[in-house]
Amino acid sequence: MENWSLFSLCVLLGLTSRWAVSFHSYSGAGKPPMFGDYEAQRHWQEVTYNLPVHEWYFNTTNNDLNYWGLDYPPLTAYHSLVCAYVAKLLNPEWVELHASRGYESHSHKLFMRATVLFTDILIYIPAVLLYCFYFCDGSSKQKVATALCILLYPGLILIDYGHFQYNSVSLGLALWGILGLGLGWDLFGSLAFTLALNYKQMELYHSLPFFCYLLGKCIKQGLTRRGFFQLAKISLTVLVTFALCWMPFLSDPKQPLQVLHRLFPFGRGLFEDKVANTWCSLNVLIKIKTLLSRETQLFLSYCTHLGFCLFLRLMFFLFVFFHSMLPLLVKDGLLLPYVVTSLAFLFLSLYLLSALERSTEEELRLGLYRKLTQRWLPKLNLSRIIKWKFWFSLVAMAVLSFTSVWLEPPAKFPDLFPVLVSILSFLHFLGFIIYFNLVQLMEPQRKKSQKKTN
Amino acid sequence: TVMAAPVTNDQSWFFALALGVSFLKCLLINAYHSTDFEVHRNWLALTHSLPAAQWYYEATSEWTLDYPPLFAWFEYGLSHIARFFDKEMLVVQNLNYASPATILFQRLSVIVADVVFFYAVKECCKCLREDKGKDLLGKPSFILTVLLLWNFGLLIVDHIHFQYNGFLFGVLLLSIARHFQNRHFEGALLFSILLNLKHIYLYIAPAYGIYLLRCFCFTQSNADGSLQWRSFSVVRLVTLGTIVLSTFSVSFGPFIGQLPQVLSRLFPFKRGLCHAYWAPNIWALYNIADKNHLIVCSYYERVKFKLLDINKLPKASMTGGLVQEFQHSVLPSVSPLATLICTVLSILPALFRIWHRPNGARGFLRCLVICALGSFMFGWHVHEKAILMAILPLSLLAVESREDARIFLILSITGHYSLFPLLFTTQELPIKIFLMLLFTIFSLTSLKTLFRKGGALLNPLEATYLLGLIPLELICEFVYPLTVWQKTFPFLPLMLTSVYCALGVTYAFIRLYISLLTCSDSTKKIKTQ
Fold it and tell me: Which keywords describe this protein according to UniProt (chain B) (predicted)?
């Protein structure tokens, strides 16, 4: 079968699962007075449509920042504005100033879900397809399998189409950035990533690798001649993009400061969360940090030209991360899609990549570990241990999922299960961070020109 | 390191496909469901709460039991599991009861019952003549599995609209597979059971009857393939008869006293010629011709003669959304008997053909598809879901012969598209488009690759017709609702869809007939048993 048909089948499967998940509940559904992220997005449409730009980020009588005030960079605001225009055409009640607070209806839900689907199709999915087509090793069948695994990743599907967010926009733009860099179009890559940064400030976590990579590339080309020009062009691109995005806020010095204050509310503590005790705060911190490091890992995986079987480790990592979101998803009433999509993803990854039968030590890049352990434990069969650890982790996650949903926690520790989930995830993430960093440091660099010819 | 393509054991791909489609079905649990959901809930309730003697008399709900007794027993069995989900659904008076537990249970029951379908598909794959392919995606068994397990029509009718067709078609396909494997007693038994589960399969009973009589009861054929009268085996005939009769007696036995009542429930001829959604069959074209004639006539007469008062002409009252009897205005009205005669006439040549020149199990299958399609084309009160009875068995032929693949493509794409009006909600619109595209792209590309030798599979005319479905969909579901006529002629898109698809279905029917009547015998010298 031809490539285009296989890729389109993957896309259609991805789109079908996304839309099917969207049938289910969203965050804060039917839970006044604050509702949830869904209401936040609707509220931003209301604010950006009805109020002038200079009031968007300020606390005024018309704009109560305590009720889901805008705390993402301007591009999110512009996106909300465009959606608001469409909403106004369909049903003005959806974005009526003040009157539309807590508005919930079936048609409105369809509209909101449709906006997510639209941006997904426009930005994220083409980026994934191009990434798999150009930057994956292996035969075309393997590329298709990779594309399918990425498109069916339950984390993004459930957060975007269940809980309700627009992560596909920022991740998609960041992925376009990676694509740009990989294809050697540095300016395009920088432009795309800057837009991603202006969509969600959390992309700052990825900015360091981007910055280091581009700087390193320019230095390699010689800072006196071509390298310098390249650096200048990139800097110019970034600055102009920032300027264009922030243009409405540059008239008054108070504006950009207020926006930055909303984006990085250090006064209140870095993370807003409702759980009071210290354990959960600590775990929340770790959870959100690792939410972002997933994308870092994706980027790292590209940069070091990871092979196919390393991708399996990545898949497992993504799966663990997804499991850590269980308490949140259960709260949103998304248990069924959680179970179905995670099982499907797990089986799909295992089946398509079928790496368990083939993960020899070499393929798991365990050479370094070998060297370390050989001294003290020469009889250790590392690959078998890895396999057992994998199955143990799966069982542990399954058990925790089951207990989180069906068992009552003891009265002394009401948040026992979310905390256990967080701890388990944290331990895995720690392991992954060590592993990926070791791999990046030890992996010999392959020529980038090899990639360009694909 | 570059790995070769994933090496998996022989049958794991089947398991992966089955599991994958089951996951998709689970995700669709929350989708729209039609009144058929309430129908089955009502049947769960009445079989659970009432003694068997009252099942066919119960009429609290408008959705009375109109399937044969074995299905009623099936619902009875399900009701015992339903107790653990939500007892309230088993109360007959709880009309339109649809708690989350009820929905979960009913949906899961369809998903689990599909296991029968999975088994049947596996058996059908074993019946394929040759199963070699360059890689997994090019293997006929793989293509057949996807065409059956991921069939668009089955997915949306069973798991969104809500029915138990997967389970029933599983029994049908298993029966066909048994005939392919020369296990005719089992095949006959399965078909008798099927008839007692849903009597709509009477459409294809003639094919079974003629085939079993000709190829099984007459144990041998002459060298030129013609009938050898002396090889008639009474034993086989009697055994077959016993199997069929005993199945019917087990099923209808408890209801023997109320047989007229049961039959009146099973065959309600008071319903109109066309079901609410206008199956794309001959009568859709007939109705259009009638309406057109009326419109053309009245304009002509009014303009030219200024004689006839428009009100004097009996209007064709086809308030297209309702199920009722109606009269045609210009062309002669159609009665149930007329449709029966038309149906029988349409399938008679095929039956004669396999009587005179049987082509083994494949000829039987082709005849079966023709019977299903003929009944669809000319039957009384045909529901467009019935097109699945032709599409699913045809899939078996499609992966083995070029001409059948081509007919399959036309029939399946138009047939599936004609199911679109069943899901009329906005929320399900993306799902039906994505799934339709998924199935269509897969069937087109995989069959094209399978039969790449010998040029294009579809000729330009056929391709254009199929492509015409895209503007049709855009007009019917996107453009038309925004126009003024949506209020005055709300059923125009349905009519357009039916008529356009009726053309494709008729074309497929004719081509199928031609292929049956012109195919050469491959079993001339082989004994049929």
Answer: Endoplasmic reticulum, Glycosyltransferase, Membrane, Transferase, Transmembrane, Transmembrane helix
Contact B140, B131 (CB under 8 A): yes
The residue whose two tokens read 């010095």 is A253
Q: How many CB atoms lie within 10 A of CB B245?
A: 11
CB B374 within 8 Å of CB B347: yes
CA A291, CA A325: separation in Å to the nearest integer? 9
The residue among A208, A209, A173 whose CA lies nearest residue A191 is: A173
Adjacent-strand bridge partners of B221: B227
List, for residues A92-137, the tens digit of each pLDDT value: 999 988 888 888 999 999 999 999 999 999 999 999 999 988 887 7
Query: Which residues of chain B are within 8 Å of residue A23 when distances are taken between CB atoms?
Result: 27-28, 30-31, 427
HSE of B247 in the Cβ direction (CA atoms, 13 Å)? 20
d(CA B68, CA B183): 26
Chain mean position to CA A145: 20
Kindly report the number of other CB atoms within 10 A of residue B2's CB atom. 9
Among all residues of chain B, which has the CA nearest to that of A351? B16
Q: How many CA atoms lie within 13 A of A285 on its CB side?
A: 8
Segments in B418-459 forming alpha helices (H): 429-450
Among all residues of chain A, which has the CA nearest to that of B137? A1
Contact B27 A9 (CB under 8 A): no
Rg of chain A over CA atoms, in angstroms?
23
Q: Is B5 within 8 Å of A141 when comparing Cβ atoms?
A: yes
Chain A interface mutation, best of B11, B12, B23, highest count of A Cβ atoms under 10 Å? B23
Q: Which two tokens stand for residue B127?
A: 């019946």
Q: Of A104, A108, A32, A23, nearest to A67 (Cα)?
A: A32
Per-residue pLDDT of chain A (454 residues; tens, 9 = 90+): 788 999 999 999 999 999 999 999 888 888 888 888 899 999 999 999 999 998 898 888 888 888 888 889 999 999 999 999 999 999 999 998 888 888 899 999 999 999 999 999 999 999 999 998 888 777 888 888 888 888 988 888 888 898 888 989 999 999 999 899 888 888 999 999 999 999 998 888 888 888 888 888 888 887 777 888 888 999 999 999 999 999 988 888 888 888 888 888 765 543 343 322 333 334 444 444 444 443 443 343 333 333 333 555 666 777 777 777 777 777 777 888 888 888 888 888 777 766 434 444 444 455 555 665 665 565 556 667 777 777 787 788 888 777 777 777 777 767 777 777 777 777 777 777 777 777 667 665 543 333 333 3
- Asked if A317 contacts A428 with a C-beta cutoff of 8 angstroms, the reply is yes
Q: Check if B433 contacts A (Cβ < 8 Å).
A: no
Q: How far is A149 from chain B (nearest CA, A)?
A: 13
User: Is A356 an interface residue toward B (CB < 8 Å)?
Assistant: no
Could you read off the pLDDT of B353-403 as tens digits, one per residue?
A: 988 888 888 999 999 999 999 999 998 878 889 999 999 999 999 999 999
Rg (CA), chain B: 24
**In terms of residues, how long is chain B?**
529
